[in-house]
Amino acid sequence: MCGIAGIFGGGAEAARRDVGVMIDAMAHRGPDGQGVVDLTPAGGALALGHRRLALLDLSNAGLQPMLCPDEARNAAPPRGWLVFNGEIYNHLQLRRQLHGEGVRFVSGSDTETLMWALARWGEAALSRLQGMFAFAWCDLRAQTLLLARDPLGIKPLYTAQQAGRMGFASEARALRAAGLGGGGIDPRALASLLAYGAVAEPLCAVPGVDELEAGHALRLDLTKIPAEALALARRWRYAASPKAQAWRDREQGVAAAAQALEASVAGHLLADAPVGLFLSSGLDSAALATLCARAAPNTHAFTISIASAGERDEAPIARACAEELGLPFEAITLTDAFVEQRALGFFTALDQPGWDGLNTYLISEAVRERGMKAALSGVGGDELFGGYSGFRTLPKLRWLSGLLRNLPAAVRNAIAKRLYPHPEQAARREKLSELLAAGLDVQALTLRSRRLFSDAQLRAFGLGEALSTLDAQALPAERWADAPLEEVCAEISRVESRYYMGNTLLRDADVMSMAHSLEIRTPFVHQPLVDVIASMPGRWRRPEKGRNKPLLIDAVGADLPRRLLGLPKSGFTLNQDAWMRGPLRAPFEQWIDALKHSGALNPTLVEHEWRAFLDSSPQSGQWSRAWMLGVLGAWLATA
């Protein structure tokens, strides 16, 4: 994993200088090497830059930008240049195919494999890649620049055009550092941020910057200034319907899931540097631990232990799981003093403001300090195998909202108020009222269940105009939409994966781990595995006989620690409510004050939300919205 950057247009000296600025701004992404190369396509100057975190072939043969020579390796002009962020987990298979076609490799890196795949197969190589990636491939013969992201959006890639220059980078702040992108925050991005706790792609918080959507490739003509888009293509989509694949029976499906899981974990363990495992008391990470114990029994497992958590501390269960599987284990204890000292770094590590990520930031720092350069995470297991409560409740709510959607809003509000009568339950009451109005639209129900602030609150914040430019779900209208799936659980899985996992979990995992030069690998977020599970009937993922995620449990097999099967869903949990009232209160009040004076939102409502949190009980859940506003204020203070 690394950081990539590039600028096309303007003078060669300015392009090289600004790419240097961008890779300096991403130094945390790659402590093992850096490089900048100047090119001169027909249309003008092009500079490419790279920061390296070495995981495959730790030698200098893996350095980037990587030159693809003429295939005859003579004095002829080179084929092109590549800068690449990510991991190609099937690169050994691809390498064998390319070797059979006459390619002679000089390194053991997946970067060289990707480079020759693009040189030999062109854009058709994209359909052969299995992994996480964002790259820029400059084809000197065709005079084109190809930008691409992996199908599920694990690796980010941002673009900006300004004053005849086009730039791209792994982080939005790098583009801003080079003068590509404005100050403040984009209003449309702000509206989506407050709606869901994360900016929805292709929007970006930095004005003038866009995020290339997951699974998309953009080909640019380098003979024109500014660079012209020759094609914007979507390279992959979720299975159209579970009915598209005929499965004989569930036993066949379990066997296929087991095979896909084992292959994914084996690929994600491939490295020439230490790879660890994030282990909580939850089922997803325990499943990964079980698969790691088979494939690489020396994999070191780590969990966060909260000193003041009491019965909520996950370390005892995680330790017992690791011991049963024979994995090395360490619990990393977080005290209030530790949080006060270290958590402030989370706010300076933000690339875009977002609700999530503090847990990833803290454990990534600790795991990197213990010598790991990569760690496996259970992100994506809930989305793929039906772990969220919505897989159980939303089908019932869909039936109820279908009955009640034609009732007047006042009646729906009265029903919600009857169920949530207390003032501290206002947010839940308003969310339920909106859910009851969603009707039979599964995507709308799933997205509404994730809402942080309602449309009415967004308008009260002063975002009515921005909201009017978004669609009915407060998402960008220009997003690539899909026709709804017929099967309810399959549609919930797709929506949760694309929007919550894509915009929140994966983005935060990347930024917060790379803040400490640690690569997070996500075996559940793997296209071949997703393709297999998405083709199965959704009912196979529903809880049965008290078992959550039955398909995952059966696929992993009998050596999955049994003590986990009856436990409720869990994960790395932090006590942000208490920290905001205690050790983090002073900085939060500064950030809330900064937000009130930023002009971005109605200051009266900002103050109201903060006071409502301070006046609420810790059990009310009020902290989440106050946390979001504090994070936004912290980001704006340094933007």
Radius of gyration (CA) equals 24 Å
Sheet with most strands: strand arrangement: 2-3-1-9-8-10
The global form is globular
Low-pLDDT residue spans? none
Distance between the termini: 25 Å
Percent of residues in helices comes to 40-55%
Largest sheet: 6 strands, antiparallel
Question: What is the gist of this entry?
Answer:
Helix content is 42%, strand content 15%.
Please write out the topology:
Blueprint: E1 2-8, H1 12-25, E2 34-39, E3 46-52, E4 66-68, E5 80-88, H2 91-100, H3 110-121, E6 131-139, E7 144-149, E8 158-162, E9 165-169, H4 172-177, H5 187-196, E10 209-211, E11 216-221, E12 228-234, H6 250-268, E13 275-278, H7 283-295, E14 300-306, H8 315-325, E15 329-334, H9 336-342, H10 344-349, H11 358-369, E16 374-376, H12 381-385, H13 390-404, H14 409-419, H15 426-436, H16 442-449, H17 455-460, H18 464-468, H19 488-514, E17 519-521, H20 527-534, H21 550-556, H22 576-581, H23 585-596, H24 603-615, H25 623-638
Helix pairs in contact: 2-3, 6-7, 6-20, 6-21, 7-8, 11-19, 13-16, 14-15, 15-16, 16-19, 23-24, 23-25, 24-25
Structure, explained:
The chain has 639 residues and is α+β, with helices and mostly antiparallel strands. The chain contains 25 helices and 17 strands. The strands form 3 sheets. Strands 2-3-1-9-8-10 form a 6-stranded antiparallel beta sheet. A hairpin with a 2-residue loop joins strand 8 and strand 9 (165-169). Helix 13 (390-404) packs across helix 16 (442-449). It is globular and about 75 Å long. The mean pLDDT is 90.
